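REQUEST FORM: STRUCTURE PREDICTION
Request ID: SP-0412
Submitted by: Lab K.M.
Chain count: 1
Length (residues): 132
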Amino acid sequence: MNSAKTVFLVDDDQDDRFFIRQAIEEAGASIEIIEAENGLDFLALIHSDNSIPAALILLDMNMPKMNGLETIAAIRSDPSIATIPVVMVSTSFDPTLIESAYQAGVDKFITKPSSFEGFADLSQQLITCFLS
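STATUS: Completed
RESULT:
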């Protein structure tokens, strides 16, 4: 049986997905990461295999097709996935946008790091708060 926790990483920026994946893997936690480029792809993925018990959803704010706010609204209105913790990551510092994310139902809002050390710190926070 696989005891790894599953994290869905939803971000249209391939480099950000790479850095987040690397940081989590280097933290040594037993975590499986499933990537999606936008909210629509994520919703299709999570509904295509209901046997995947997601431990956390990492969600970018600004994405094509379905942005982070639209995606969190869809997650929170779907009883099959509504209880999964969601952390929104964004390059935005806009307090109005951050407030909108919390009102939509995110569990935590984190500004995207600009260095690998920042991504390492982010992964440690996620593991401590949501994955241990």
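NOTES: The first helix runs from residue 14 to 26.
Reviewed by: T.R.
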